[in-house]
Amino acid sequence: MSVATNLEALRGELKAQGLSAFLIPITDEHMSEYVGDYAQRITWATGFAGSAGNAAIGLDAAAVFIDGRYTIQVKQEVDGTLFGRHHFQEYPMLKWLQDHVTSGEKVGYDPELATIEFVESLQLALDKVGAVAVAVDQNPVDIVWESQPAEPLSPVVMHDAKYAGKTAAEKRTDIAAELEKKGADSAVITMLDSVAWAFNIRGKDVLNTPVVHAFALMHKDETADLFVEQSKVSDDVRTALGNAVRIRPREEFYSALQDLGRQNSTVLVDATTNNSKVFKSLEKAGATLVKGQDPCILPKAVKNPVEQQGTRDAHIRDGAAISKMLHWLSIEAPKGEIDELDCVDKLWSFRKELSMINDRSFDTISGAGPNGALCHYRVSEETNRKLDQNSLYLFDSGGQFNDGTTDITRTIAVGTPTAEMIENYTRVLKGHIQLTLMKFPQGTSGAALDTIARKPLWDVGLDYDHGTGHGVGSYLAVHEGPQRIAKGNNEIPLQAGMILSNEPGYYKAEEYGIRIENLVLVKELEGTYERPMLGFENLTWAPLDPTLIDRALLTEEEKQWVNDYHATVLEMISPQIDGEAADWLKKVCAPI
């Protein structure tokens, strides 16, 4: 069925439910960034296939709201005669609603797909025009989406403590202590990676992210309830989880919340990660709510020594696959015959050779020429293009290993790059280096560091419309909070043990894209300082493209960094490759 047909069917259902508009976010009942096919409601309704955005569907008008990463993609995928296409900052969805609904009208939302904070802001916006926000009992999209995929049923598997660094029982002890501090009897855990981390379980319910569709309740007596489809849990997994974990049907989750209320329990809830149905279920049943952060988020983000070493090891293995890929590109790209999909397949063939590899960590971004200017481009048969001569090729990819999650971006020149390409690549590299070299006092947030990576671009009036760094999990989500390096109000202090990306870029619409991404580990700095200081340990080891580096633009410190980095790449990666690839690696890692 076409988007126009889907839109017509959806509007028919809105009328049947007495709604003047309905909101469709890209998320699921766990507030996930990456969702299963069954939850790709915005793609079904609008055609937009990006990983972040919202849609508002009215009876006479509709719109899609995206950030700067998707301004080009939304024009390619969303019919402008059916939908308005807006940057969420330039024309926010709540302002659009104020302009398109009137007094007495009802705007529907799915309470499992919205946080309580969003619902409150939605109602405040609608109050200004006399409209009301209504939580639907059943999502209108689900009612009319005839071919909606079923929820996945992949089996639950245990994640060995030799990789996790702590047993699930030890984690429950730590969480119970946190609940005691908060004065709470229980905590509601709904984020998929938090559930996976807390119980040391993994699965394949979400593409490229090794999580299980499950909810959990953690209790101060060190027991827990895990709500998951029973057929997914083997006897071995039940035995491994032990008697302190009650494995219950997934559909009992909301009734279990009501039971907590009837027991007059005090429950820790996270307004930013628990959906609004969680709040309403507890409130209506009489529970006392303590608002605070999901108690798994921070210990999950601060990697223990075992996880730190695991990610170091995973990145060294991954660097061999990336180096083989870059060597292959050096031979094949100049011939003008390979395309973006060829590159995706070839890169995965190299990664599949690595030990402990389980999956990609996200769909590989493989952007040739103008496609590289789309920050989160997803190649398809329709968009696939060859790597043209005298152009740039950008690929952003990662692997899920038992001992760590990787994420790396490299940009290469195909043929002879222009002077502009070289200058802009070098400016991106300068920002990358300066961020890597930063020393900063404990308590510093990622927002305070973001401008460091942007300054070389800002010096000539350039910028990029995405964050500089995101948190990364340990054989978990490639995008992990709460830490970030980005513009805005993110005041979460960086802590030793956190893993982040360092990925400044530049994108010239319809021409080329540049991004350089390594992962870094926050570490305590040794030495004599007035106050405790932190810095970054580099984790990613794969060569840069020396043909794109303008040495004259680099400071002596930056040149030394490039030479030291390449010397370490050679040391780490050479033992894993041989033949022509080894000779090539030695050449590209030569001092500049």
TrEMBL record:
Superkingdom to which the source organism belongs: Bacteria
EC number: 3.4.11.-
Domain Creatinase N-terminal residues, every copy: 7-129
Record-linked InterPro entries: Creatin/AminoP/Spt16_N, Creatinase/aminopeptidase-like, Creatinase_N, Pept_M24, Pept_M24B, Peptidase_M24_C, X-Pro_aminopeptidase_P
Keywords for this protein: Aminopeptidase, Hydrolase, Metal-binding, Protease
GO cellular component: cytoplasm
Signal sequence annotation: none
MF annotations from Gene Ontology: metal ion binding; metalloaminopeptidase activity
Residues annotated as domain Peptidase M24 C-terminal: 532-592
Residue ranges of every copy of the Peptidase M24 domain listed in the record: 311-524
Pfam families recorded: Creatinase_N, Creatinase_N_2, Peptidase_M24, Peptidase_M24_C
Family: Belongs to the peptidase M24B family.
The name this protein goes by in its record: Aminopeptidase P family protein
